[in-house]
Amino acid sequence: HFDLQGKFVCEDFYRRLVTIRYEDLLRLPVRIGVAGGPGKIAPILGALRGGLINVLVTDSITARKVLEMSNIN
């Protein structure tokens, strides 16, 4: 879990998951996120800002809203 700025917020929860470590994720050259819709705009922006993803697959409306929100926040 991460906030709008891409910072982790539930570190205790994260430590109990079976998943790739954050440091290892950031070493991957391609990190793809797939999301769309009004409820995903802030999470997408947080993932982009935090470097969690560097490729986004989404719809054009969501993409525009993410760009608009990135200029505001």
Give the topology, please:
Layout: H1 11-15, H2 22-27, E1 32-34, H3 41-49, E2 55-57, H4 60-72
Helix pairs in contact: 3-4
Question: How does the overall form come out from the CA principal axes?
Answer: globular
Measured between the Cα atoms of the first and last residue, the distance is: 19 Å
Element string (H = helix, E = strand): HHEHEH
For the record, the count of structural domains works out to 1
Residues in helix, %? 40-55%
Give the biggest beta sheet: 2 strands, parallel
Strand content: 5-15%
Structural class: mainly alpha
Task: Compute the number of strand runs.
Answer: 2
Output mean pLDDT: 90
Q: Specify the number of helices.
A: 4
Query: Which stretches are low in confidence, meaning pLDDT under 50 for 5 or more residues running?
Result: none
- Give the C-alpha Rg: 13 Å
- In order across it, which strands form the biggest sheet? 1-2
Architecture overview:
The protein is mainly alpha-helical. Helix 3 (41-49) crosses helix 4. 5% of the residues are buried. A two-stranded parallel sheet has the order 1-2. It has one domain. The chain contains four helices and two strands.
